[in-house]
Specification:
127 residues; four-stranded antiparallel beta sheet; seven-stranded mixed beta sheet; mainly beta
Length: 127
């Protein structure tokens, strides 16, 4: 069982930045692709960004490409999401995810491939 705990959410103005962090409780952190998903009110949960086990492979949703950057530190069991140029449409609960499948080589995590979820952290962007 892997526990994922997110932090870093909050209220920010349009154009601002946030850094989300997720720490995983596992001795085999580098066995997982790690990623971030988000769910806005009334919408389905969607993929935001993913990173392979070594950090060398990353994948982003088109809507965040160029504004969001995912990174991981295998020594600290953490995965971060740097969010820049925030827009009101980025308002959502952001969830950390771990995937032990093939995504660990590509960073491309599918919603139904996630093995573990965090409880989420809320990001609210005011206009």
């Amino acid at each position: 069982q892997v526990q994922l705990v997110e932090s870093g959410g909050g209220l920010v103005q349009t154009g601002g930045s946030l850094r989300l962090s997720c720490v995983a409780s596992t001795r085999t952190f580098n066995s997982y692709a790690m990623g971030w998903f988000r769910q806005a009110p009334g919408k389905e949960r969607e993929f935001v960004a993913g990173i392979g086990w070594s950090g060398g492979a990353t994948s982003y949703a088109d809507s965040v490409e160029g504004r969001f950057t995912i990174s991981r530190d295998n020594a600290k069991n953490t995965v971060d999401l740097q969010i820049n140029e925030l827009e009101p449409e980025d308002t959502a609960v952001y969830y950390c995810a771990a995937d032990a499948g093939a995504a660990r080589f590509t960073g491309r995590i599918s919603l139904y491939g996630v093995d573990y979820w965090g409880k989420g952290t809320l990001v609210t962007v005011s206009s």
